[in-house]
Amino acid sequence: MAEVSGNGTIFQMEKDKPKNKCRKWQLRVSTGLDPRTGKYKKKTRVFNGTYTQAKAALRDFIDEVEGDRVQGRTTYTFEEYAERFLQRRELNKEIAPTTLDRQRQHFKAASRHIGKANLAAITPTMLDDMYIAMLGGDTLSGKPSGGSYVNGIHDNISLVFDQAIKEGILVFNPCHKANPPKMDTKAKRALSPAQAHKFIDSLDPEPDRECAYLLAITMGLRRGEICGLSWGDIDFDRKVADIKHSYDYKGNLKATKTKAGTRVLPLSDKTMQILRAHKEAQFKRYARTNQWRKPEEGYIEQTEDSPVISDNCGTRVLPTSLSRWWTEDHAKYGLDGWCLHEFRHTYLTLLAIQGVHPKVMQELAGHYSSQISMDIYTHVNMDSKREAVAAVSEVF
Question: Which stretches of the chain are assigned E, i.e. beta strand?
Fold first, then answer.
């Protein structure tokens, strides 16, 4: 490990500009006297930014030198290397198209701030400045970003730097010393048993949108799983549903997101009743639609491959349509401010209230890890304990 002598030096490279206008600096760090030459050895780096930022970058540079982690040299800017990173992942089919799109959006947001910077010159301080700017409204939309969104950007650009290290382009990931904001996503809520019962009784299983809400709360399905469900996946004789597909916002019917997501769910009597009523109503609706369709347009048939939730033409609906439906409907059910995913959370919470084991909850929900199920179970169990302690305290 190299030992730095002194505090380092910052040299102004744009001599024709006053110090407060200069944006190009050379950072110099002395690593002591070379016993062979009798001269002082030094390491240098060019930095683009204000003098204040250069001072912070110099401190980071000293830390890197002392840890033998001086960044390599590269011609890649951040946005160039990030695009190369995405192209490689796409060609190798490492991630789903939706994940790829999300990463591309995150890199685009980051490139507004560090896109033109040389990959090796990006420091933790530059990243911290970017996060602060995003939270303050310096974004592509012009609106302040939430902490969870910026935290997601931090996680994804960290993957870019890790890949550069793997390829030998860099030796240090600046994200590891940066300070991203904390997650600020609101905790998911759950309807009480009484609220859930009232909501379910208020829904008609025949219309597609109301049937979709019923599947979310009585089976705990995700939006993509509801939209990906076909009649061939429902076995009315065995009273089970085979959850093996998900439908994404681009209209792709694909395997579930994780291996754990592929599961066979037992159907309750209530859910069986919902599905039978909906299937019959859908069949009649298709028959009415076929009356005015021309032969060359083709007739709509209800087959094993037909979607459970469809539009009037028998087409599978997108998950975004479910969200739009709920935005239009939530007020009339007295659930203003509740999101569709909270029905899934309600389903799991009701299981926990009934004392279902976390491992069984995990399998019913299709969670990759039992930790999420355990968090819900523990929370519900703690509420029960508090009620018991409160009852005893009345005696005291």
Answer: 5-12, 24-33, 40-48, 234-235, 240-243, 245-247, 253-255, 263-266
Per the CB < 8 A criterion, the answer to whether 337 and 257 are in contact is: no
The architecture that CATH gives domain 200-337 is: Orthogonal Bundle (1.10)
Whole-structure pTM value: 0.67
Per-residue pLDDT, averaged over 139-164, amounts to: 95
In 249-300 the beta strands, taken as DSSP E runs, fall at: 253-255, 263-266
How remote is the C-alpha of 3 from its chain's centroid? 42
Instruction: List Cβ neighbours of 271 (8 Å cut-off, separation of 6 or more).
Output: 214, 215, 218, 219
Give the angle subtended at the CA of 298 by the CAs of 296 and 300, to the nearest 5°. 160
| Domain definitions of the chain by residue range | 5-177, 200-337
What is the distance between the alpha carbons of residues 358 and 372, in angstroms, rounded to a whole number?
A: 9
Sheet (strand 263-266) strand order: 234-235, 240-243, 263-266
| Superfamily per CATH, domain 5-177 | Tyrosine recombinase, N-terminal domain (1.10.150.130)
Q: Are 4 and 31 in contact (CB under 8 A)?
A: yes
Would you state the pLDDT for residue 390? 72
**Residues of the chain above pLDDT 90, percent:** 60
Sequence-separated (6 or more) residues with CB below 8 Å from residue 335: 199
- Over residues 66-92, mean pLDDT: 85
Number of H helices, E strands in the chain: 13, 8
9: β partners: 28
∠ at Cα 194 (192, 197), nearest 5°?
A: 110
CA 176, chain centre distance (Å): 20
Helices 341-353 & 208-219 angle (0-180, nearest 10) = 40
- Report whether 29 contacts 62 (CB < 8 A): yes
Residue 227 CA to residue 253 CA, distance in Å, equals 9
> Can you give the pLDDT at residue 1?
43
Whether the CA torsion 322, 324, 328, 331 is positive or negative: it is positive
User: What is the three-class DSSP state of 126?
Assistant: helix
3-state helix, strand, coil in the chain (%, to 5): 55, 10, 35
Other CB atoms within 10 Å distance of the CB of residue 242: 16
DSSP alpha helix (H) spans, 92-220: 97-114, 124-135, 147-166, 193-201, 208-219
Question: Which residues touch 27 (CB under 8 Å, ≥6 apart)?
Answer: 8, 9, 10, 44, 45, 46, 47, 54, 57, 58, 61
